[in-house]
Specification:
Elements: E1 4-7, E2 10-12, H1 14-20, E3 24-28, E4 32-34, H2 48-56, H3 58-67, E5 71-72, H4 73-78, E6 84-86
Parallel strand pairs: 1-3, 2-4, 3-6
Antiparallel strand pairs: 4-5
Helix pairs in contact: 2-3
């Protein structure tokens, strides 16, 4: 059975690892991911280093993991980490 991640807002740290485990990823246009482990004196967990290295290559994965910067949904889609980026309707 396939798993689908629907990300609205952010997927940070181990949450990003869980998203990377899914078969399909759909994110809101303004969503982002980040791995702020170094800012907290921690090593990446949840297999994120493995997933990012496999998906993006060692150079880009190391940059994201060492700097902990935000990785916006449109950029993630261009890199092949996200299947769909959707515009969220605001209600109320």
């Amino acid at each position: 059975m396939p798993t689908i991640a629907a990300v609205e807002g952010f997927a940070v740290g181990v949450a990003w690892s869980l998203v990377r485990c899914c078969d399909l990823v759909v994110t809101a246009e303004d969503a982002f991911s980040a791995a702020p482990f170094p800012q907290r004196g921690m090593a990446p967990d949840g297999g994120l280093a493995w997933f990012l290295t496999r998906s993006l290559g060692p150079t880009r994965a190391a940059e994201l993991l060492m700097l902990g910067e935000r990785f916006p949904a449109p950029t993630a889609a261009a890199a092949g980490l996200v299947n769909r980026v959707v515009l969220m309707e605001k209600h109320g």
